[in-house]
Specification:
Two copies of one chain form a homodimer. Chain A is mainly β. Chain A contains no helices and nine strands. The first copy, chain A, has strands spanning 3-5, 9-13, 31-36, 52-58, 68-69, 80-81, 94-105, 108-112, 121-127. In chain A, strands 2-3-8-7-4-9 form a six-stranded antiparallel beta barrel. Chain A has a two-stranded antiparallel ribbon with strand order 5-6. The radius of gyration of chain A is 16 Å and the shape is globular.
Amino acid sequence: MEITITPIGVMRCGLRTPSDAPMYHTKSNETGVLEILSPYREAMHGIEAGQKIVVLFWLHQARRDMLQVYPRGDRSRGLRGVFGTRSPMRPNPIALSELTVLKVELDRIEVSGIDVIDGTPILDIKSASGWQTKETDK
Amino acid sequence: MEITITPIGVMRCGLRTPSDAPMYHTKSNETGVLEILSPYREAMHGIEAGQKIVVLFWLHQARRDMLQVYPRGDRSRGLRGVFGTRSPMRPNPIALSELTVLKVELDRIEVSGIDVIDGTPILDIKSASGWQTKETDK
């Protein structure tokens, strides 16, 4: 079974290479713009400044053939399967970022908290509320 | 640009139709099994009972042509763009679930907290720690 996905937009920011990207988006103060492709703009309706969103990215530069890694490059702890880590290398390299919306325009969502590089395809955007067990159920 | 994704496994559980599935996985006590396909089993190494994992599913029965919805079916609040909601209907219907690992075998991860139906393709599995701003950075 194969699934075909068409990106709904692209990240625009100042991070140029994976080594520029912070290891965890929780440490990132980077801002940038989610550029949404025209067929999908209606789906942005209602997104507002101040809101937290979960963005799914396709890590187009990540290796897909690595099944085990040294977490955070630390060899002392041994190899671990990528499914038990947050490594960008994995068979389907989809990244999750929780970002804060700064501003919304026709086809642009300005956000902070970026941990992916310029040009990264966007697969999906969701409201961040109500999915984690730690959240109150609004 | 088109991206091709091959599922790494499939959900096995007692939920048969989307109407069986709880609206939010935080309310789910359902248990089931993530069956991992043989080429990807090495990537499970290190996953242990008690751990929380984030699982990305492909909602194979979801409509992909809906850009706006009434959140939770409540028409009084008006239509909203799907990117500001948690609706399963969206251009790329990828679901996120935070699940608790109950048991790990060769090619099976028994989990609780399920909110997707039997047969749902699995795209990726990640450690749940360290990605949300609410988490301490371990």
